[in-house]
UniProtKB/TrEMBL annotation:
Organism this protein belongs to: Streptomyces lonegramiae
InterPro entries per the UniProt record, alphabetical: Glyas_Bleomycin-R_OHBP_Dase (IPR029068)
Highest taxon, organism lineage: Bacteria
PANTHER family: BLR2520 PROTEIN (PTHR36503)
Protein name per Swiss-Prot or TrEMBL: Glyoxalase
Length: 214
């Protein structure tokens, strides 16, 4: 049952932390340091089992194609698998890689041409949750205190976040997200990601777990 009574639960204003559950934290730490996102995520040892699509992706928005290529190359050099080679599209330029721990990352820019040299700067990081019912999950999070910043019917919703949050939260139809990433939508077991906030713990309608931020 979706709780919508904000007087009985603490309010979520943004994501305070993103923790990836991995089999080998030291190996994962080396990868994410080389990739360039080690300060934006946390790692936790876990033997949780999962197969197929875990239902989420972490997306990096950067300044231009050369910066996209730099992040993709760094990931591949550190052991990532390319799911979608970086390429131009109607909306810009981007590619998708899968880290050795199984987490899928999308790196993209709305710019189709470079206006300056490549950098290692990240303009924005977004956690996209693949959900079965975007409208229902959106209402769940609104009931928890989040504010909708963008919404496109039953396909996509994005929430506002404060400057202290390392990542923005968005909801995407699960099958649509899988298609965008170039992977089958089927998957079972743990999502292997835990979100931190001031109002944890709770679990959303699609099984994504939140905990009290430390």
């Amino acid at each position: 049952m979706v709780m919508t009574n904000t007087t009985s639960i603490a309010s979520v204003t943004s994501i305070a932390s993103v923790t990836l559950e991995v089999a080998d934290p030291e190996a994962a730490r080396r990868f994410y340091t080389a990739f360039g996102v080690d300060t934006r995520i946390r790692l936790r040892a876990s033997e949780a089992h999962s197969t197929g699509f875990r239902g989420f992706t972490l997306a990096l928005t950067v300044s231009g194609p050369a910066t996209v290529d730099g992040f993709v190359d760094a990931a591949v050099d550190a052991g990532a698998t390319v799911l979608k080679p970086a390429a131009k599209s109607l909306w810009g330029y981007g590619g998708v890689v899968q880290a050795p721990d199984g987490t899928i990352w999308k790196i993209a820019t709305s710019a189709k041409k470079d206006t300056g040299p490549a950098t290692r700067e990240i303009d924005e990081m977004v956690l996209l949750l693949g959900v079965e019912d975007v409208k229902g999950s959106k209402q769940f999070y609104v009931g928890r205190g989040l504010t909708v910043a963008k919404s496109f019917g039953g396909k996509y919703a994005e929430f506002a976040s404060d400057e202290s949050s390392p990542v923005k939260l968005a909801l995407y139809k699960r099958r649509g997200l899988a298609k965008d990433l170039g992977v089958p939508a089927e998957g079972t077991g743990s999502h292997r990601v835990v979100l931190g906030c001031a109002a944890g713990p709770f679990t959303d309608p699609d099984g994504f777990a939140w905990e009290a931020a430390s």
